[in-house]
Amino acid sequence: MATPCVSHVPDAPTDIDHDDTVTTLQCHPTENILASGLISGDIVLSSFDASGSNQELRKFPHHKKACRALRFSENGRRLYSVSKDKSLLCFDVETGKLKKRIRNAHESSIYSMVVTGANFVATGDDDGVLKVWDMRTKEATVEMKECEDFISDMVVDDNKKIIIAASGEGTLTAFNIRRKRMELQSELFDSEMLCLATMKQGQKLICGTGEGTLNFFNWGEWGNISDRFPCGEAQINCIMPVTEYVAAIGTDDGFIRAVHILPNRVLGVVGQHMEDFPVEAMSKTADGTCIATCSHDQHVKFWNIEELKRQKVDTSKKGSKKGKKLMKFSKAKKDDFFSGLVETGEKDADKSDSDSDDSDDDSD
């Protein structure tokens, strides 16, 4: 049994508490504002700061079932949301006005979303259907079904041309949304593909899986993995790059862990939600100093990652064969907070390759 740990480090905002389970979240790209999606379908916009003066700004009660994904537009003026009720919504962040609503955007519940342009978003559903939406016309400009199970997560390249989608069936699929075709699909893996992140200046795509392994793909080479890194036995639900070589992962056992890639090491434990409650989502604050996470404990927690950015791995040493140790938390001074981080290898650790939408439509 893991030792309980405190929920904060110095200079991290205090918890944002909700009256229902938080299923997803997203930080605003330029302001200290966080959007929380609840299992009830409500979306709550909150402000936060390190002084603890968090404040609820707005609540959007428009979804009828659980909110599953939230994304701000690149300029932060719009907030997009999708839900188990199959709808896609767009809100004006400043006024709180519902700008667009697309009811029954998919035939099955929507699971994931990514912003692909100033007026475009892509959505993936429980049945493996991907759609790209022009939010000005509320029409799907692309619709493809190449996956047999839910589309768990998506990323898009800098040119907004290629979407990479992870699926619960255990595949990774590259879609060319300009040419409206599938480019390539990976071989079928034994475990669900659940979350995605790009690292190493976009050269690597990192995929978290249901078996607790990180799969690495070279960008553009989607047929098979270039490397894999077992991080433990707990399912990896979300991943957030901290630097080009360090990422935070949220797992099914309630922990947020820090990992270093290439060389691959589990550095330590950043934080923990209530034991045995999965970490469902994470997002980096606008200033890059903290990550926000949510679980089934009705709290959004913040973790300061400044010390983590300075962690180094001694490439001349192999990872320990004894497995990772949990980091002990304390309200110690900031410089001591990550002192418990350890370089720890796993079985395969050393196999690494050494918006603007100007429409005023309030349509329901």
UniProtKB/TrEMBL annotation:
<protein>
    <submittedName>
        <fullName>Uncharacterized protein</fullName>
    </submittedName>
</protein>
<dbReference type="InterPro" id="IPR019775">
    <property type="entry name" value="WD40_repeat_CS"/>
</dbReference>
<dbReference type="InterPro" id="IPR050505">
    <property type="entry name" value="WDR55/POC1"/>
</dbReference>
<dbReference type="Pfam" id="PF24796">
    <property type="entry name" value="WDR55"/>
</dbReference>
<keyword id="KW-0677">Repeat</keyword>
<dbReference type="InterPro" id="IPR001680">
    <property type="entry name" value="WD40_rpt"/>
</dbReference>
<dbReference type="InterPro" id="IPR036322">
    <property type="entry name" value="WD40_repeat_dom_sf"/>
</dbReference>
<keyword id="KW-0853">WD repeat</keyword>
<feature type="region of interest" description="Disordered">
    <location>
        <begin position="345"/>
        <end position="364"/>
    </location>
</feature>
<dbReference type="InterPro" id="IPR015943">
    <property type="entry name" value="WD40/YVTN_repeat-like_dom_sf"/>
</dbReference>
<feature type="repeat" description="WD">
    <location>
        <begin position="103"/>
        <end position="143"/>
    </location>
</feature>
<feature type="compositionally biased region" description="Acidic residues">
    <location>
        <begin position="355"/>
        <end position="364"/>
    </location>
</feature>
<comment type="similarity">
    <text>Belongs to the WD repeat WDR55 family.</text>
</comment>
<feature type="compositionally biased region" description="Basic and acidic residues">
    <location>
        <begin position="345"/>
        <end position="354"/>
    </location>
</feature>
